[in-house]
Amino acid sequence: MLSIEQAYAGVLEPALIEEIIKNARIKTFREGDLIIDTDQYISAMPLLLAGAIKVVREDEARGELLLYYLEQGQTCTMSIACCLGNKKSEIRARAEKDTTVAMIPNEQVNDWMGKYPSWRNFIISSYASRMNEMLQAVDNLAFSNMEERILNYLKAKVNLTNDRILTLTHQDIASDLNTSRVVVSRILKKLENEDKIVLLRNEIRVLI
């Protein structure tokens, strides 16, 4: 795990990093742990020091849709909006693997916007990055067929884990892409026949 200084050096000014160290609460989560829930008031914004976080939009009747992943050195745009506006969360965030975050209290999130230019730039940049990722998710949903969506999903997982062998089930993919396991299994078999992946027991080796 990187320290706060290591994770944000060159991004945030030294005086701000000192304030983060003073005010932040360091929290750890195991893989699968719930970090932010839907309809929850958020009292602090997470800065990711280690691990990865999966952010999804949930509908009780239609299941979940993957919005984006967060990696080391990033923060959750949706939590920023809730912190600044004192609103309930509209997303659910879970630890994709063992994860450590520095939780920044709401009052500091607001105060630092006017006090530190690097913090304001970091927040704006985070908004832009997460917005692009959400637009990609919308484009995949609206304009890509399911085979393209699954391939994009697998490639994103490879980039996130830095490993071409992914430990996940067909149901995991179906849940993230809000489709059926039967459809996922059929497409994965087709991709294997095309030598794009290799299907193993609860694992997928990505070849492209």
UniProtKB/TrEMBL annotation:
Q: Kindly give the SMART domains that the UniProt entry links to this protein.
A: HTH_CRP
Residue span, Cyclic nucleotide-binding domain: 8-75
State the Gene3D superfamilies in the record.
Jelly Rolls, Winged helix-like DNA-binding domain superfamily/Winged helix DNA-binding domain
Instruction: Provide this UniProt record's keywords sorted from A to Z.
Output: DNA-binding, Transcription, Transcription regulation
Q: Where is each HTH crp-type domain found?
A: 144-208
- Report the superkingdom from the record: Bacteria
Q: Which segment of the chain is annotated as a signal peptide? A: none
* Record Pfam families: HTH_Crp_2
Does this entry carry the keyword Repeat? no
Its protein name is Crp/Fnr family transcriptional regulator
High-level lineage: Bacteria, Pseudomonadati, Bacteroidota, Sphingobacteriia, Sphingobacteriales
